[in-house]
Structure formats: structure tokens, C-alpha cells
Amino acid sequence: xxxxxxLEKSYDQGGGKVFVLRRITLAIGEGDFVSFMGPxxxxxSTLLHILGMHDALFTGEFHFSGHPIHExxxxxxxxLQRAHIGFVFQSYHLLDDLTxxxxxxxxxxxRNVKKAERQSIVAETLxxxxxxxxxxxxxxxxxxxxxxxxxVARALVARPKLxxxxxxxxxxxxxxxxxxxxxxxxxxxxxxxIIQVTHSAENASYGKRIVKLRxxxxxxx
Length: 221
Hints:
A hairpin with a 2-residue loop joins strand 1 and strand 2 (about 15-30). It contains 7 helices and 10 strands. The protein is about 35% helix and about 30% strand. By secondary structure, the protein is α/β, with parallel strands linked by helices.
């Protein structure tokens, strides 16, 4: 699904370059569950944002399902992102002025899903995540665990091939965190590819392999 070849990310600073990622070469297959680990500043979240096509300012090659991302226009990348990738962030990133139902509907509207079909998919997702009773509430009316559950539901509502998760349990207590990780495990078992950034060895253990970064380099894969 993903192939990176000599990918690098740098910033200009003081007349020179500061590298955030160095010579990243990595392959991730469909159905994999990969945990990126490493100390703060290792480049984990930067790499995740490149994989999510939020950041195109890098050198080297990035292939996604046969598409050369490093050669595509912004609009072409956005089309691929919306069609195939779901995101789960530590800080939820729910839209505060939309209800739970409306937050779940947003990714489907990006894909031009007809209204009747959107309603059906959202209803099925609300039921699957057992949040039907929360559908008319706004994010600020939910607990942290409930908000993260809605965020995961939103990431999955359009049935993406790939889930990218950046410290998905960082704001949750341990029991809520385990529930989210067990959910990821079940999703992976049904074929969804998952890549997570985590500082937690327990969370990393849910994956099939761990990729360790340090100072922008892969030191163990």
C-alpha cells in the first residue's frame, strides 16, 4: 500500500538545513498495523502527516496504492486522501459547531455520497459505536472518552483503506484507552490498515510491528 524511498524533510534555518526526517525507506502493506515509536522530536508525527498527505514539502519518493504522491498536484492528493484515509488525533479535531451526527456526515459529503445513503451509513455507524443517544449533542457536551469514540467513528464512517492515528489515547484514562486500542485491533483483523504514533509500549503492542525513529532516522523496523 505504501512505499517510501529516501524520503527526507528539512527546514531552512540560519543559512543551513535542519533535517526532521532522513533517508526514510519503508514499505507498509495492506492489512498491516504499524506503530511508530521514538522520543519527542524523532519525526514520528511529521512522518504521519506526510503519509496523510497533509504535508507535501519533502524530497524522495512516496507511493500510495500505486500512485506517485511526490509527483501529484495538491488536488489529486486531496482526492486520494478523502477517498482512502481516515484520521484520529489526540485532540479529537471534532467540529464544535456541529452535532455528533453532523460530524459523522462530513467525510461522506466530501465524497459526494447522496443524502439518503449518507443517512443510512451514519445511522449504521452510530449504532455500531453505541452512540445513537449522543447523535444530537455537540462535542462540548461529551466526555473526553466519548469525543474520542466519535472521532474514531468519523474516521471510519467512509470505510477508508487506511487509518492514521496520532497518540489516539493520549487524553484518555487507561480503561478508555484500552477500549480504543481493542477497537483498532478488531478493525485491523477485518482488513483495515492502521498506522499509529505512540509513546506507549502497551499501545504499540497492539500492532503487528514497531518502527522506531530517532533524530529523524529509522533505527529499527
